[in-house]
Specification:
Helix content of chain A: 25-40%
Largest interface: A-B, 31 and 30 residues
Strand content of chain A: 25-35%
Largest sheet of chain B: 6 strands, mixed, barrel
Oligomer: heterodimer
Distance between the termini of chain A: 17 Å
Number of strands of chain B: 21
Strand content of chain B: 15-25%
Structural class of chain B: alpha+beta
Order of helices and strands of chain A: EEEHEEHEHHHEHEHEE
Radius of gyration of chain A: 17 Å
Distance between the termini of chain B: 40 Å
Number of helices of chain A: 7
Shape of chain A: globular
Largest sheet of chain A: 6 strands, mixed
Structural class of chain A: alpha/beta
Helix content of chain B: 40-55%
Strand order of the largest sheet of chain B: 2-3-8-5-7-6
Number of strands of chain A: 10
Strand order of the largest sheet of chain A: 6-7-8-3-9-10
Chain lengths: ~220, ~850
Amino acid sequence: MLRCASLSKTYLSGGHRLTVLKDITFHVEPGSFVAIVGPSGSGKTTLLGLLAGLDRPSAGTVHLDGEELGALDEERLARLRGQKIGFVFQSFQLIPTLTAVENVQVPLELRGEPAAARAAALLERVGLGGRGHHYPAQLSGGEQQRVALARAFSTRPKVLLADEPTGNLDARTGATIIDLMTELNRDLGTTLVLVTHDHDLAALARRTIRLADGAIVADSAA
Amino acid sequence: MTGIPFVLRMAAREIRAAPRRLLLLTASVAIGVAALVAIGSFADNLRDSVRGQARALLGADLALSARQPLPRAAEAVLDTLALQGGRVARLTSFSAMAYVPRTRGTRLVQVAAVERGYPFYGEIRTDPAEAWSGLQQGGRVVVEPSLLTALSARVGDTLALGEARFVIAGSVVSAPGNVGVRAAFGPRIYIPARDLAATHLLGFGARAEYEAFVRLPSRVSPQALAGRYRPVLQPERVRVRTVAEDQANLNDALGRLTGYLGLVGLIALLLGGLGVASAIVVFIRQRLDTVAVLRCLGASAGQVLAIYGLEAAAMGLVGSAAGAALGALTQRALPGLLAGLLPVDVHTAVSPRAVALGMGMGLWVALIFALPPLLAVRRVPPLAALRREVVPAGAGLDPWRLTAIAALAGSTIALAAMQVGSWRQGAMFSGGIGIALLLLWGAAWALTRAARRWLPRTWPYPWRQGLANLHRPSNQTTTIVLAIGFGAFLLATVFLVQDNLLRTLRLTGGPARPNLVLFDIQPDQLAGTEQELRAGGYRAVGPVPIVPMRIQSIKGRPVTLALADSAGGRDGPANAWALRREYRSTYRDTLVASERIVAGRWWTPGAAEPEVSIERDLAGELGVRVGDRIVWDVQGVPLASRVASLREVDWARFEPNFFAVFAPGALEQAPRTFAVLTRVEDAAARGVLQRRIAERLPNVTTVDLSAVQETLERLIDRVVLAIRFMALFTLGTGAVVLVGALATSRFQRVREGALLRTLGATRGQLFRIVLSEYLSLGALAAVVALLLSGVAGWALARFVFDGKFALPLLPLAGLGAAVVGLTVAVGLASSREVIGRPPLQVLRGE
């Protein structure tokens, strides 16, 4: 489903070449649940950005569902994201000017699909059935992240990429979010790639890839 | 494309959530649109009125006019027209002194001696109503009400005009087209044509206009007649006018007036555009996260641009609609502001065309100014949703952005050209605005740099903090300096031009300058006139001899040939006026203070041929240079002359100036009249002297220059008032943009204030921080604006109005202080929360 080969990323920072990722190679099977862990600055989020096609690697390739991301221009990447990828962010990233249900509708509407019924059903599923007309500012952090989950799953994406999804939540709320994610992963067969430094969370994954200083130091599947 | 419903839906949701400060910015478009709709409606109403009243303005289908009794060729034409069923009414008009024996009041008036039937169209309404119809019974006069006021006279009084006596039968309630500069030379009075001879006023040297008005049967086309007879009448110095041509000329003149007023409105709209642009910059900054998330979710760059483009368009539309409503109300005030300048009655209907045009322009300006900053959303990387620190890729040389900016510049020129009806002027106007804005922008840039680099460390903390605010991230320095500075620049320039125009007109130069001119003194009346002046204790300046003459030929080519040249269009050659007119020339051996030689030399003693000095601009019109020969027709006697010199004449000084001045010797034997000047300080004494002259020398015209000057000043004041009224829209827009600019950064500022207070800043310190910030902003905007207006005012005075330029420092300083005060007041008012809100509430409330 996701395959990256010899992936490197270097930045020019104040005249110095800064290597954030070097020679990353791994393969993720459809329907699996992978956690990418590592200390701050180890390159986790950079890797996630490359997997989603949000950024371009300095060397190496990423294949998503058989397509080579490097060969696609920005517009086709956007379409690919809309069709195959769902996102969950540490800071939720709901659109503040839209209600909860509208936030869930956006990816469907982008694809030109009927949105209202499915969005309502998904909100029901994450336990926010009655809160659809609320704006993000009127929801707690946990509720916002549940809306974000509903949004991420609304288009039945092949891959769900999550960046520290519990990072801004307390332990109990975080656990609910994780339960929901794994449930949806199981029910919909979505491939789940999760970036975290939360060991409890990583322990739930079927496979853990550990990064340090931009390189893979451990991979539980290997 | 599946994206369109999504874009529409998202745009609608964004508009629903539009922050109030963005609405405020639609107000900046609204004021400009209001100005344009008001002017546009007014211009349309004016054109309608001219169309409806053009026939009444001329009073006939066709009119012939000349500065001498109509020549035989013209009489022949009139006879022919009468045979074809046309009706003719003649009107002779001239200046003269009116005198009411009962009140002993005297006043210079414009006499119109009319025949029965005039006007054929339109109506001269009088009070009492039958006064007009009874006029032709003879011995009666109908006068404008201002004459009754000036002479303390009333209907039924006797009015003396020359050697005739009339009964005042009534006053004019309304007569078409009698306005403007003509009114400066006295109110109009109507007498029957058959009583004209009895006044004995049209003797030698009198200036009169002789007109014949013709009403044609409906089957005859006035335009065709004008085309047929013009080649015959033009060389005879007879002008032919038709309703259609008069209407076109009037529309041209009024179109220029409303066009220039519209430019001021356009400036307000463009300033509003700047406000829109600055709002969008801040707005986009607040929407970066949303844009990045939408991109993550699969929206294309084009879709995101479309969403915010639609939102900007909707805001522009709301602003334009509000502006159109405001403009529809405002336009009711315009005819009143320009009263006395307009030859027609103007109704105040709202013109749908003007509303549509104004709204269209508002929408367009909102969009075109929003576009360059909006284009930045295309460059927001989706990665920004993961990492806050990712900034949009640098603007660089984005071809789209360059195209948008070029479109902006192009539309500014097009809009200006549309207002004034000329591409060249549109481009010049836009260039001028561009330069002014560029300089203001440069000043703002310099200020932010200076604040960053050279802020003395020894200054007290609040001042350093306030000035540092000028360059902190997302500061509004540029927007505020542009908005305030441009409004102030405009007002100051209008003020400077007005001040300099009026200064040129004013009779300065102390008690030596004459303020009363006595014209048409016959040679045998000269002694009597001077005696009259001496008796009053007044000094007589002059006498200045005046010899009426016409040009017979220039460089050997007869004028009649030149006038018959039809190449120049319906009014003959472009210089027809110069060729046709009657010149009232003088002779003397010295130059006067208001003239100087610019080519050739003043008289050569013992010259073989009579020498003449021609005014420079006239020489240009006539195409003569020093050494050329001009033959004059002096009352039928040819007089050959050589151009000895060209003179520059300061016409604005109210002195007897001449187009042609002859060397002594050539004209002493010619029939001539004299003018004598004097100065009488007291207005009442001037009145007494005018009356005594009128009683004793009824044909002598006395012109009170102070009265003429006052009337002209009133007219200028009217125009200036209208321009200022429009300039207020610009200042209003400036204020709205200022408020909007401050509101967009309010949240950040309130937080900063709270932080500072948490760190121990007192309210007094916060107040000083805010004060120093706006004081420096206002002062910078004011200083740059005043400097710019000084340059612009000088250029206008020098190149457009041909006058001297002076800087009235005190009023300008006052204007500058007012601008600074306004900036500080708005700044402090919008910072109440920064200073006043309890810090904990802010920090907790997020």
